[in-house]
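User: For my dataset I need records formatted as: sequence, then structure tokens, nothing else. Please produce one.
Assistant:
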Amino acid sequence: MAKKKTISREDIITCYMDYVLEHNENPKSVYNFTKINGFEEAVFYNFFGSFEAIEKHIFKTFYENTIKGLESSEAYETFDARNKLLSFYFTFFENLTANRSYVVYALKPLKNNLKGILVLSDLKKIFNTYIANLDIETLDIKEEKLEQIQTKALQETAWIQLMLTLKFWLDDTSAGFEKTDIFIEKSVNTSFDIINIAPLKSVIDFGKFLFKEKMNMN
């Protein structure tokens, strides 16, 4: 086969996804993979160090395409944190559904332990950043270390929720994955209801008031 003159990162990703879906297995080697697809092995290494790197990048791309779609909507920027996260979930899983055959192939063998799958490590990093930038209201502790712990706990909880949703979607056989949509809506709303700090803030404010009044009386 004649060697292709030019090949992009996206070309390699497409070739890789096509290969694993057609053969139901990973390529035997980078040499074999590049030979089949008509480009030099060195070109592969210009973009990726391994097949695992491709797999990580694919899930990162699902995220990036989701954010790109959301940020193209003027309405999205007006949403509060709850509705931004709901929009993220619905759009992210639309992207996964468009590539469901590949996602099922990549994750199904390990779907019972999604939290520990290395192929999702890049996705976790950027998702954690997304959660941190959502400005979800938390307690104003005014202690740096405690603030960091609170932020980390919020990110880990959000990641676990995403993994639970992903597992539910992998198992979902409903038409149009409508059960996953219901799961997303209920789980995200429930999580925000749980972390709703308004009642707790009222208790704290009331406590401060009582303390202040007691001090004044003394």
